[in-house]
C-alpha cells in the first residue's frame, strides 16, 4: 500500500497486489473515477434483499469474492451503535473502506470477514428440520387437523409457522388495515395457550408472522398497558407509532407485545418487513433494527437467537434466518434458486429459507413441485410455503402418485439429515465455513467450477446438482449437465460411481423422478438419523453412517442439547468417524469424546457402504447385506463408542469400489421403462451384452440418432 500521508486521493493512495488474475493489472486507486474496480464482470456476486414477485433470474448485488483476486466495500454510510447500544447515525463524515485481497482463497476471505464482522450464530437444532408454512386462514381445529394428518403419514416437521391470519386482520384501511397485528383472532383461536401447548406436546416449535410498520393501535390487547408505560393517554386511542430508534419504545415493544406471546409458547418471530429501507428521520433501515433487537432479545432470554426475516445487507449473517420472499410458481423460479442460495455465501449469508414449491401465481405442475421439494431438502432451511390461493397448497396428498409418496419420502430424508446439518451448523459458527459452498471455493482455478452455477457443496461431503428441468418423455429421465471434479464420486441415492479423472469432466447426469444427483466425494462420511417418522429432532438413538469409497477421510459429528448456551461450557459430544482407505482394504473406526450425557446411551450404528463392490468381506461385522440395485452394503456391528469395522476386497480386481459389474442389468431396467422404439431397445441391449469395449459401444449408440436425452442416459452408464 502506497500512501502519501495526505488527504486520501487517487494519486496519493493506491494498492498493488502480487497476483494478477485479469488483464486489468493489479493496482487499485482510492476513489478512481476512470474505471470501476474491481472489474464488475469478475465479481462473483452476493445476494439481495428479496425475491418478491420474481419469476426466474434477477440481478444480484456484488459480493466479497472476485475472480480478480481482490475487491473492496465501502461501509462509510452505515449506522453505528451508541453508548446505550442503540443504532445511531455517525456523528460526522467518515471514510470506512475495506480492501480484500485473497487471490482465489475464497475460504480465507470469508473466514476473515467473519472475524471482522462477527461469526454466524449457532442455530437451534429444531431449525434444521422441515417447516410447515402457508398463508391461509387456519383455525385451531383446522391447523391441528392438518398436522395430525402429517403425523398419521409419518411426515415429520419441527417448525409450525403461523402466517398473518393468526391475528385480527379485519381492520378498516382508515385505521391502517390488517397487515399489522399482535392480538390473537379469538374467532379462529379461542384458546391460544391451549393451541400452543398442543403444538409443543407434539414437538413443534412455533413462529408467528408480524408486519410491524403500523405500530400498536388501540384495538390491540396490550395497547392500554403499553400506552400508559410510554406516557400516552389510552383514552386518546392514539396509535403508538413504530420507532425502533426510540429506546423506550423498544423496551415496551418487547415487554408488552412480544414477551407475553413468548411466555405462552411462541418460540421465535417471522418479521415480515415490506416497507423498504426508509428509516424516516433516523435514516437507519428499520429492517436492520428489527433483526438486531429481536435476535438479541432471544439471547437475553436464554435462547439461541433465531428470526425469520429479510436480508438487510452486508453483515446480516449475524441475524439468521433469511426469508427470500414471494416467488412465482414456475420452472424458471426453481432454476434460479440453487444459484441464488449458493452465491449468498459470497457475503457470508449462508442461511436462506425459500418458499419451497413457489409462493404464488404460476401453474400446477406435479413434477415441478417434487423437484422443488428435492431441492429444499438439500438447501439450508426447508420451509414449505404458498399463498392463500386454494389451489397452491403444498400438502403432499394434493398430488397424485407417485409424486405424493416421493414427497413424503424426501421430507423424511431431511429429518434424517439433521445430524449432518447440525454439524455443518457448528462448523459454520466455530470454523467460519459456510453451510452452502459454491463449487469454486474448492476448485478456484477450474473454470468449469464457475460455469455450472447450480451446483454447490452441502458441507464438505456432498456435491448437490438439483434437477430444474422436466423429464424427457422418451427416456423418462431429467438430464442435468454437471461438472464432476477430479477423483471418485458416488451418488448417495443410486450408488453409482463416477470418475472425474485427473482434471474433472463435464457430464450429463440423468435421473428419474425419485432422485437428484447428490454425489459424495471420495471417502465421504455422512451421519444420518436412522428412524425419521416423528417430529422429534433430539440426538438419535440409532445412527446410519453413509460411507463413499475412494479415499481416507475423517468426519467429526457434533452434538449438544440443541438450544441454549451450555455448549459454551463444554456440554457437547464429538463422534469421530475415520475411514482409513487403501487400494485393497479399508477400515472404519468410531471414537466418541466430550460430554457423553448429551447423547443416548448404548447408541447403535449402522454403516451404509454406498458404491462398494459386491466382492468384499468384513471383520467385526454382526450382519452384512448387499443391494445390487444401489451397489450398497448395509453392515451392522457391535459399536460401543470405540469400535472398528474392517473391509477387504475379495474380488478379481482386488478393489472395494463398485466397477460396473452389473451395468447390463441397469441398462435393461432403464430400457424397460423408456418410452421408445422396441427394436432400438433390443439393439442397444445387444450392444451392451456383446462384450465390445466402451468406445465401440458409444460409437454405435451415437450413430443410432436417438433422442438426445436417451443417448445421454445410455452414455452415462458407460462413462461412470
UniProtKB/TrEMBL annotation:
<dbReference type="Pfam" id="PF21365">
    <property type="entry name" value="Glyco_hydro_31_3rd"/>
</dbReference>
<keyword id="KW-0378">Hydrolase</keyword>
<feature type="domain" description="Glycosyl hydrolase family 31 C-terminal">
    <location>
        <begin position="433"/>
        <end position="526"/>
    </location>
</feature>
<dbReference type="InterPro" id="IPR017853">
    <property type="entry name" value="GH"/>
</dbReference>
<protein>
    <submittedName>
        <fullName>TIM-barrel domain-containing protein</fullName>
    </submittedName>
</protein>
<dbReference type="InterPro" id="IPR051816">
    <property type="entry name" value="Glycosyl_Hydrolase_31"/>
</dbReference>
<keyword id="KW-0326">Glycosidase</keyword>
<dbReference type="Pfam" id="PF01055">
    <property type="entry name" value="Glyco_hydro_31_2nd"/>
</dbReference>
<dbReference type="Pfam" id="PF17137">
    <property type="entry name" value="DUF5110"/>
</dbReference>
<dbReference type="InterPro" id="IPR048395">
    <property type="entry name" value="Glyco_hydro_31_C"/>
</dbReference>
<dbReference type="InterPro" id="IPR033403">
    <property type="entry name" value="DUF5110"/>
</dbReference>
<comment type="similarity">
    <text>Belongs to the glycosyl hydrolase 31 family.</text>
</comment>
<dbReference type="InterPro" id="IPR013780">
    <property type="entry name" value="Glyco_hydro_b"/>
</dbReference>
<dbReference type="InterPro" id="IPR000322">
    <property type="entry name" value="Glyco_hydro_31_TIM"/>
</dbReference>
<feature type="domain" description="DUF5110">
    <location>
        <begin position="545"/>
        <end position="611"/>
    </location>
</feature>
<feature type="domain" description="Glycoside hydrolase family 31 TIM barrel">
    <location>
        <begin position="121"/>
        <end position="424"/>
    </location>
</feature>
Amino acid at each position: 500500500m502506497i500512501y502519501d500521508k495526505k488527504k486520501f486521493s487517487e494519486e496519493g493512495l493506491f494498492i498493488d497486489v502480487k497476483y494478477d488474475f485479469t488483464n486489468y493489472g493489479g493496482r487499485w486507486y482510492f476513489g478512481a473515477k476512470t474505471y470501476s474496480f474491481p472489474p464488475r464482470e469478475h465479481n462473483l456476486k452476493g445476494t439481495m434483499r428479496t425475491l418478491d414477485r420474481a419469476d426466474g433470474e434477477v440481478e444480484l448485488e456484488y459480493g466479497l469474492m472476485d475472480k480478480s483476486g481482490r475487491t473492496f466495500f465501502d461501509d462509510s454510510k452505515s449506522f453505528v451503535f451508541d453508548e446505550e447500544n442503540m443504532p445511531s447515525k455517525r456523528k460526522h463524515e467518515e471514510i470506512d473502506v475495506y480492501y480484500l485481497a485473497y487471490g482465489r482463497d475464497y475460504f480465507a476471505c470469508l473466514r476473515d470477514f467473519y472475524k471482522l464482522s462477527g461469526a454466524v450464530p449457532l442455530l437451534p437444532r429444531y431449525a434444521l428440520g422441515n417447516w410447515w408454512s402457508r398463508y391461509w386462514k387456519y383455525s385451531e381445529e383446522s391447523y391441528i387437523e392438518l398436522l395430525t394428518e402429517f403425523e398419521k403419514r409419518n411426515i415429520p416437521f419441527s417448525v409450525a409457522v403461523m402466517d398473518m391470519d393468526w391475528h385480527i386482520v379485519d381492520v378498516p384501511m382508515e385505521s391502517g388495515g390488517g397487515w399489522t397485528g399482535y392480538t390473537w383472532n379469538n374467532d379462529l383461536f379461542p384458546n391460544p395457550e391451549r393451541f400452543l401447548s398442543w403444538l409443543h406436546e407434539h414437538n413443534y416449535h412455533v413462529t408467528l408472522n408480524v408486519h410491524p410498520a403500523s405500530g400498536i393501535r388501540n384495538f390491540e390487547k396490550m395497547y392500554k398497558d403499553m400506552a400508559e408505560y410510554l406516557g400516552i393517554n389510552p383514552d386518546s386511542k392514539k396509535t403508538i407509532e413504530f420507532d425502533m430508534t426510540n429506546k423506550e419504545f423498544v423496551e415496551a415493544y418487547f415487554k408488552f407485545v412480544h414477551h407475553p406471546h413468548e411466555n405462552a409458547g411462541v418460540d421465535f418471530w417471522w418479521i415480515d418487513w415490506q416497507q423498504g429501507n426508509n428509516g424516516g428521520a433516523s435514516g437507519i433501515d428499520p429492517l436492520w433494527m428489527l433483526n438486531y433487537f429481536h435476535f438479541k432479545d432471544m439471547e437475553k432470554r436464554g435462547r439461541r437467537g433465531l428470526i425469520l426475516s429479510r436480508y438487510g445487507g452486508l453483515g446480516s449473517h449475524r441475524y439468521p434466518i433469511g426469508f427470500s420472499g414471494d416467488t412465482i410458481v414456475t420452472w424458471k423460479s426453481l432454476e434460479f434458486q440453487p444459484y441464488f442460495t449458493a452465491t449468498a455465501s459470497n457475503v457470508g449469508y449462508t442461511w436462506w429459507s425459500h418458499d419451497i414449491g413457489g409462493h404464488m401465481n404460476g401453474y400446477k405442475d406435479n413434477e415441478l413441485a417434487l423437484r422443488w421439494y428435492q431441492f429444499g431438502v438439500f438447501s439450508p432451511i426447508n420451509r414449505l410455503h404458498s399463498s392463500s390461493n386454494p389451489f397452491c397448497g403444498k400438502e403432499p396428498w394434493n398430488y397424485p402418485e407417485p409424486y405424493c409418496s416421493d414427497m413424503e419420502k424426501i421430507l423424511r430424508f431431511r429429518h434424517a439429515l439433521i445430524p449432518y446439518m447440525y454439524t455443518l451448523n457448528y462448523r459454520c459458527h466455530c470454523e467460519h465455513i459456510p453451510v452452502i459452498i459454491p463449487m469454486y471455493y474448492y476448485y478456484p482455478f477450474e473454470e468449469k467450477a464457475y460455469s455450472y452455477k447450480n451446483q454447490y457443496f452441502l458441507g464438505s461431503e456432498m456435491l448437490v446438482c438439483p434437477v430444474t428441468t422436466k423429464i424427457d418423455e422418451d427416456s423418462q429421465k431429467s438430464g442435468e449437465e454437471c461438472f464432476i471434479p477430479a477423483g471418485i464420486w458416488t451418488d448417495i441415492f443410486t450408488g453409482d460411481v463416477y470418475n472425474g479423472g485427473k482434471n474433472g469432466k463435464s457430464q450429463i447426469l440423468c435421473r428419474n423422478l425419485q432422485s437428484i444427483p447428490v454425489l459424495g466425494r471420495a471417502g465421504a462420511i455422512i451421519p444420518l438419523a436412522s428412524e425419521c417418522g416423528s417430529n422429534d429432532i433430539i440426538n438419535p438413538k440409532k445412527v446410519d453412517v453413509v460411507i463413499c469409497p475412494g479415499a481416507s477421510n475423517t468426519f467429526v459429528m457434533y452434538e449438544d442439547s440443541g438450544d441454549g448456551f451450555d455448549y459454551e461450557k463444554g456440554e457437547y459430544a464429538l463422534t469421530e468417524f475415520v475411514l482409513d482407505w487403501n487400494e485393497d482394504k479399508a477400515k472404519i473406526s468410531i471414537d466418541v469424546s466430550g460430554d457423553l450425557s448429551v447423547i443416548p446411551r448404548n447408541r447403535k450404528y449402522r454403516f451404509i457402504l454406498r458404491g462398494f463392490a459386491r466382492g468384499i468381506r468384513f471383520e467385526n461385522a454382526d450382519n452384512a447385506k448387499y443391494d445390487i440395485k444401489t451397489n450398497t452394503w448395509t453392515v451392522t456391528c457391535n459399536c460401543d463408542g470405540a469400535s472398528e469395522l474392517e473391509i477387504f476386497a475379495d474380488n478379481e480386481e482386488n478393489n472395494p469400489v463398485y466397477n460396473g459389474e452389473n451395468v447390463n442389468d441397469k441398462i435393461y431396467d432403464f430400457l424397460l421403462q423408456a418410452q421408445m422404439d422396441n427394436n432400438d431397445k433390443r439393439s442397444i441391449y445387444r450392444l451392451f451384452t456383446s462384450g465390445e469395449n466402451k468406445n465401440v459401444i458409444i460409437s454405435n449408440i451415437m450413430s443410432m440418432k436417438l433422442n438426445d436425452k436417451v443417448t445421454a442416459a445410455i452414455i452415462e452408464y458407460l462413462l461412470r
